[in-house]
Amino acid sequence: MMRKSLIGFGVAGVAAAALLAGCGGDMAGMQHGSTAPAPSAAGQQDGHNEQDVEFAQDMIGHHQQALDMAAMVPGKSTDPKVTDLGRRVAAAQEPEIKKMTEWLTKWGAAPASTSMPGMDHGSGHGSMPGMMTAEEMARLNGATGAEFDRMWLDMMIKHHQGAVEMAEVEQEKGSSAEAKKLAQDIITAQQAEITEMQALLK
Hints:
- The protein is mostly helical.
- It has helices at 2-35, 37-46, 50-72, 80-107, 120-124, 134-142, 145-173, 177-201.
- The protein is 81% helix and 0% strand.
């Protein structure tokens, strides 16, 4: 009888141990499942990083200064090719500003400061490559004719080179597919315009 009881206990003990092991395994699996996938899911929903936000904020200010420069062309330039280029710069960059502003709203990020055109852009965003200072903008605004055309082309080349540099950083470090595509579009378009402006200066 004693031996029979022990055997019975042994079988029951093994069964209980197996049951506990099974529960422990399930609980471990549940714990793993509840913590590990969370960052991945958040990343998929997010789709952007801090570089994308910085790119949009800075490029809006950068583009706005290009619009300020383009707005000076009518009435000051004597070269139809410069006038045409100024028109194209405005036509390309205004929609891009709108698009990047929409991204910042969607991402819950602070909008870029675009107050005091031609002044704040030159001082508030001085760390951005290719930006003109307030003094340079004032000097450009005071020029006319051939002097204006030469100054405008020279400044816009530098401005475009700065935008290309910013877009290349976005290509390297950004996460948003939309932002990186815009960065590539900026590189392609502005490098072509740089070549065009260099030819006009010659």
